[in-house]
Input
Amino acid sequence: MEQLELLWEYQQADMAVDRLENEIKRSPTRQKLVKCRDYLLEQQAAFKRIEGDTTVMADRLDALKDAVALSRDQYNSLVAKAESGVDSHEHAEAYLAEAKRVLGNLNAYIQETKRIRKDNTDRERLQHDIKVRYAKYKAEFEKLKAAYEVEYNEKNGQLEELKKAARAKTAGITKEMLDRYQNIKLHSVPPLARLNGSQCGGCNMSLPSAVTRSIKAGELIECETCGRLLLPGNP
Ligand SMILES: [Zn+2]
Output
């Protein structure tokens, strides 16, 4: 059998391999598995983000604790000074103004502390929800994974058989022709097309009669439009 016809036979086997490979990739179980995995990764990332926020807020709480202690000391010392006797009205006013300012700060610090504590509680609840969701989806993931493994092993056995058959079909084909086939396959699948009357069977473009004559005479000609290697119509 001539090279092109051998290559045509090989193409049938090669396309069967590709079809099964695509089928494996498109398997609904696999798609669900991928979706489930992505969801789990998202949940992990969300959990980490919250953890990061909590760490930042823990530092802020420490700083606030110090600020509150400092403000209390300042306030107490102002009160002590005022109690130890104020020598003038102006001084009394100044102490009062200062005490008010310190008290204002103290209040702000306490409010912020409360807010952060509430946020922390919210974050804890969120983390708890994430943990519950994660466990649920993790169980689902394991189930899907087991199902996919069974499916994959079965399909993979078939795939190996098809690949073996395709390899066997390369017998007698020159390396040059096989390389040419693979190169065309990079842009046009399948890489070979038969003439359909005067049209390329791959892209349906009409070919000049001189070209179809050359193809029928066994010349190696690629379609000008799609680049497929052309064979005469069905033998
Ligand atoms: Zn074409």
